[in-house]
Amino acid sequence: MSKHILVLPGDGIGPEVARIAVDCLKAAASAEGVSLTFDEAPFGGAGLDACGKPLPEETLDKARSADAVFLGAVGGPKWDDAPERPEKGLLALRSELGLFANLRPVKVFAGLEGLSPLKADRVAGADLLIVRELTGGLYFGEKREGRETASDLCTYSADEVARIARVAFRAASGRRGKLTSVDKANVLATSRLWRSTVNQLAPEYQDVTLDHMYVDATAMKLVTHPSAFDVILTENLFGDILSDEAAVIAGSLGLLGSASLGEGGPGLFEPIHGSAPDIAGQDKANPSGAIASAAMLLRFGLGEARAADRIEAALQAQLKSGRTTADIGGSLGCRAFGAEVCERLAS
Questions:
Q1: Where does substrate bind (predicted)?
Q2: Can you say which residues are annotated as belonging to the binding site for NAD(+)?
Q3: pLDDT number for residue 305
């Protein structure tokens, strides 16, 4: 039975990297005997241009009926004065699909330590997973706009915290068994609720060692001793910042993918970089993050681990070959890099 994937190319470099991701999905699926079908829909700035909304109703309907959704990128200065920002479509899509858990892996492969801006001995062995709560906190709280004063309300319930904490505990149980919950419990009431709720769940996961860190201490340790972390659990705002910081451990925002998951229904898979409108259409984008996201789509969205392994192995081999894009010291364009990864997938 075919699995159906909705592709949202989005804005900026989104269509370029999404095209490469689809090519890799097709190649890996063909090699493993997996049947996939694809459809596209406007989203973000492209949705505003086509339908006047960052998340058109037809796009949302297609997303709900898909087995998985792939997003290229969203946003750009073209829509700064639009009635709605393109990013509002992304928040709405996460909410409508119930995608409360964002998984962002960061791994430095042996032999690729030189890609990192940090010293090689500092990043050697780094292999961590950030589990970020995605539908609560400041980003979804009541907002008051104003020229003199403004406010954003941060709210979490114990149920919301427990739901994301269980995802992180299960992830740690399947890895090295260490979970670091990140908060600011010395200042914030929501963080104190967060910490107490996570502590209450800990006895259910005897094979996981739990510790807590303040977000500022975590930010420092991520760049001084990244290999100390296994799974990091945190709320929406902190997770957004820490995951972008952690991305540079591997060398570039362009290298990493992400998965946003809920309790049933399609997941959303996207590279963690932005739309990079300054290089859009110039064949300069690094599609590695999109390719990594394609592997996560196969693994977490469709349950096709063998095809996911195939993509990850091909991407790692391509990066190790030194034939990379300019942002990490190579000379290949986006299309050429993607074509060589697909050649490795076919072989």
A1: 94, 104, 132, 216
A2: 274-286
A3: 93
User: Residue 306's pLDDT is what?
Assistant: 96
What residues have CB less than 8 Å from 83, skipping those under 6 apart? none
184 labelled catalytic = yes
Is 216 designated active site?
yes
Q: Write down the catalytic residue from 62, 139, 183, 327.
A: 139
- Dist CA 289 CA 254 (whole Å): 5
Which residue of the set 11, 183, 240, 327 is catalytic? 240
Among the listed residues 39, 61, 143, 216, the single catalytic one is 216
Residues in the chain: 347
Q: What pLDDT sits at residue 346?
A: 87
**What would the two tokens of residue 31 be?**
């090699």
Question: Residues comprising the binding site for substrate?
Answer: 94, 104, 132, 216
H, E, C per residue of 223-289: HHCHHHCCEEEECHHHHHHHHHHHHCCCCCHHHCEEEEECCCCCEEEEECCCCCHHHCCCCCCCCHH
Three-class DSSP category at 28: helix
Catalytic-role residue among 23, 156, 184, 230: 184
pLDDT of residue 179: 98
User: Are the folds of 1-99+276-347 and 101-261 the same?
Assistant: yes
Q: Which residues are annotated as part of the binding site?
A: 94, 104, 132, 216, 240, 244, 274-286
Catalytic-residue membership of 240: yes
Over residues 173-205, the pLDDT tens digits come to 999 999 999 999 999 999 999 999 999 999 999
The fourth-level CATH superfamily of domain 101-261 is: Isopropylmalate Dehydrogenase (3.40.718.10)
Residue 251 has pLDDT above 90, yes or no: no
Assigned CATH for 1-99+276-347:
3.40.718.10
Strands 151-152 and 143-144, sheet pairing: antiparallel
- Structural domain boundaries of the chain? 1-99+276-347, 101-261
Q: What is the pLDDT of residue 114?
A: 85
